[in-house]
Every structure is written in C-alpha cells, then in structure tokens.
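Here comes my example:
=====
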Amino acid sequence: MTESHSRSVVKGISWRAVGTLDTTFISYLITGNPLKALSIGGIEVFTKIFLYYFHERIWQKINWGKPKLAMTASESSTKSIAKTSTNIHPVFDRLLSREERESFLNQKGKVIWMTGLSGSGKSTIAVQLERRLFENGFFAQVLDGDNIRSGINNNLGFSLEDRTENIRRISEVAKLYLNSGIITICTFVSPTEEIRSYAKSIIGAENFFEVFVNASLEVCEKRDVKGLYKKARKGEIPDFTGISSPFEPPVAPDLILDSGNETIDTCVEKAYNKIQSLVKS
C-alpha cells in the first residue's frame, strides 16, 4: 500500500538523525575539529531530509520490484484450479447463460462499485438507489461492506492482506450476481487504486462501473455516524482509512457523486439516471 506523506517525512527525519551522527563522527575524525564536524553534520541533515523525502515519493510511483497484489481474473482462476483437487469438475458451461438470465429479467447485469471514505454516504445512497431501481422494474442487490464483514468476511481484519482478501471475495460474489443478470451495487471503501483495479480485473472492466462518493475527510468526520473517526483518533482502531491509513481518490471514475455538498436525494437521482440507461435491456 502507498505510504502517506507524513510517514515518508518521519522516516526521512529518523534516518537522517542516524546519518547525521555518522557524518559528524566521520567529519571529526578527518578534521579533528568538533565545531567543523558539527557544522557539516548540521548542514547536511536539512538538505538530505528533503532529498530523502522526494526520493521516497518517487519510488512509491515505481512498481518495479514490488510484490504483485492483484492478478487478472484468468490468472486467479488458473492458480485457484491448480491448487484444488483434480476431483473438482466445474459445470459453468452447462448452466443457464448470462444472456438467458438477462432476457428473463429484462435487464443487463452490471456491477456498480461505490468507493469513498467512511461516512461519505455510500450505504445510504446504495439503499435508496436499490429501491429506486426495483420500483422501476429493475432487479438490483446491494452488497454493503459492513454486511459482508458481519458474514462471509467476518474472519478478516483491516491489514493490507485482509483488505485484499475482503475485496477478492466480494468481487467473486459480485461476479456471480453479474452472471445472473443482476444489477449489483457494491459499497466498499476500497481505498487504493491498486485494490480497486484488483476488483475490476476479477469482475471484468466492461462490467465494472466505478462511482466515487465524494465527501471530504472533514465532512465525514463531522458526520461520524458510526463513531469510528472518534475511536480512530484515540488510536482504538488501527489502519483506519483517512486517519492512519491513506485513501486514494479514483483517477477516472465513471461517475462522481458530490455527497459532501449535495443532498442524498440529488445523488440518488444522478446515479439512477446514469445507471438505468446502462442496464436497460
């Protein structure tokens, strides 16, 4: 996961503290003058903190040498099958096709992936959007982050590994719904571009509609409907997105809902108008 700017700064300071002691000691050995040694060490500590910071930020952008977080859907499937017993024989090709199911439901399946900070309004918008679609003849299903973590993913925490597994599982579930012709509305913080790309690779780019529910940290923290930000500020919740763990806004979402400045009803209306045109049979 990408490090926060503050973490890079602190790492730079701690590293330079060690480096400065080393530089001062070497300077003293060479010059024999403690004042010169301290001057050299004092000057280089400031210059190299800045150099180290920018060095770290540049390397954060370089993927070479990093362990792979995500794999394509085909790679995931191949790896999974390779690990399973040879006695398992999937029957996907003999089931009703997605086209048959969509024809029966008179709609096109789609995965609506809502991302945003906790408290941005994802769940509230999704619940109202699901009902609006249903009342207008569409069959939709919300897969909410808290619901999923209270059930199928109740054994997972919030480390990078667990967040990735959380997204992998729900993406596979969403894909099953998708292949049943259902409009699936997923509401997950999914804080990084990498983790959202992982979900998209499993579901399929052509079936993945990304919605950024945009509300600032300040707005979300003022709402704090679940009391999570208060606990995170006290250190009671580790790795909490927006406080002790970073959130990367989507670079090019399919739809932005400005839930920080607009009403929920307005956001639902915008989402419905956009989505219903995509899922009409």
Summary: The mean pLDDT is 85. The chain has two domains: 5-60, 97-279.
